[in-house]
Design brief:
This is CID domain-containing protein. InterPro entries: CID_dom, ENTH_VHS, PCF11-like. One of its GO terms (cellular component) is mRNA cleavage factor complex. The chain contains 8 helices and no strands. Helix 1 packs parallel to helix 3 and helix 3 runs parallel beside helix 5. The chain is globular and about 45 Å long.
Amino acid sequence: MCELLSVVDRFNAELNRITPEKRDEIRHITKVAYDFAPFAVCIMKSIINFTRKLFVDKKLIGIYMMDSSIKCPHEVVSEYRRLFDKELVNLISETFQQMNFELRLSLYACRRTWKSIFSDSTLERLNRHINAIDPAWPQQFLPRERCSVLLVVLF
């Protein structure tokens, strides 16, 4: 139990050092998350709690931290994908509701990169949930080359 608390405290301290000006620190903290793979559930919860406590204009930092932990090539990435898959709809929905238009566009851009990472059913639930909050959120995503036209028309 002491080791778990120590790991979580150390990881939380790393998270708290991230600033918008130092987004490159996200890669470093992702490596720390992978080093703490035996505690992946706690690390995932730390990232979610970190995102929730951030001021609205900083919430993308938490989303980018999650995004990095599910994308960087590493043998434990599948575990982080599995864990975040269960929490994705709630986390993104909560975050989306608090964001302004500009931040929502950035969240949308990030979401478009998850097709090969999360299950279709999770992404469909996410799209339906966000679309219920904001009908401008597409329920199905078009190929990337049509994205800019879609954003102009819908937003």
